[in-house]
């Protein structure tokens, strides 16, 4: 599974790579960005940890790389940053491009179980299995044992749920047979990942969709990808539901802007997540900062990107 480089851009002493590969889980070519800090480009034998940034609705892997300002602090700390796409593109499914909050650019980091979406909308498997396998095989300077995750909005939802769901180290979770039927991705029981969380060294989020089963964005996505009747599947992809069962340390940083219109409209619901964490005894390491006057844009993200890189660095470099 070869990774193609389409562009190399100098950034803060390191290199931002524009990359693509053919993905089995999504049944499409997938583009992504990877930032290699100076530590990696000067000495390829020096392995650097990885911070994954999951973008929000309508975005691609370019948005965070070009507007998030993560590379500045990542270059200083010696951390690579991986920027995946948010959905498959070009599957030509009827209705795929009809709205901004479902289909293209809105994969919600889940494995769909409903036709026709289950054929390629397997972003959960892509992010947790296929993409890591591809980058760690291609880039030996990346340390597969030191990985953290962050995300914005829909991507914040992805970061929170992946941490609460997953158990095994990222380097050990491989796909097995490469000719596995793509349709089987959506048939895997998600509950298996609730046993012993610990896939990523740390997690943080910017304005996450923290309780999707109770907000319009999440309800629309889950209805489309899972169907109305599979409420258990809905809960297994909801951070607020998952944190109730989470076992293990949870040092989590969340930033939310008080001028965020989506926060005001009830799309994010961080208070629900905080309440569930407190009731389950998982709030000891939870920090939610309400940033006065900030909105939902990349002006907000770039203002606090350094804090989130620093949060990851505590665990990636400690």
Description:
It is a single chain. The chain is of the alpha/beta class and 318 residues long. Helices cover 32% and strands 20% of the residues. The protein has eleven helices and nine strands. The strands form two sheets. A six-stranded mixed sheet has the order 1-2-3-5-4-6. The protein has a three-stranded parallel sheet with strand order 7-8-9, with helices on both faces. The longest helix is centred in the last third of the chain and has 19 residues, at 298-316. The two termini are 33 Å apart.
Which short descriptors sum up this protein?
318 residues, alpha/beta, six-stranded mixed sheet, three-stranded parallel sheet, 11 helices, globular
Secondary structure blueprint with pairings:
Layout: E1 4-11, E2 14-23, E3 28-36, H1 38-42, E4 48-54, H2 61-67, H3 70-77, E5 80-83, H4 123-138, E6 142-151, H5 154-165, E7 203-206, H6 216-226, H7 231-235, H8 239-243, E8 252-257, H9 261-264, H10 270-279, E9 286-291, H11 298-316
Parallel strand pairs: 4-5, 4-6, 7-8, 8-9
Antiparallel strand pairs: 1-2, 2-3, 3-5
Helix pairs in contact: 3-11
Stretches where pLDDT falls below 50 for ≥5 residues?
A: 167-196
Q: Helix fraction?
A: 25-40%
Rg (CA only):
18 Å
Overall number of strands = 9
- Number of DSSP helices? 11
Most strands sheet: 6 strands, mixed
**Structural class designation:** alpha/beta
* Sequence of secondary-structure elements: EEEHEHHEHEHEHHHEHHEH
Order of strands across the main sheet: 1-2-3-5-4-6
How would you describe the shape? Answer: globular
Mean pLDDT: 89
- Strand content is 15-25%
Oligomer: single chain
Note the gap between the termini.
33 Å
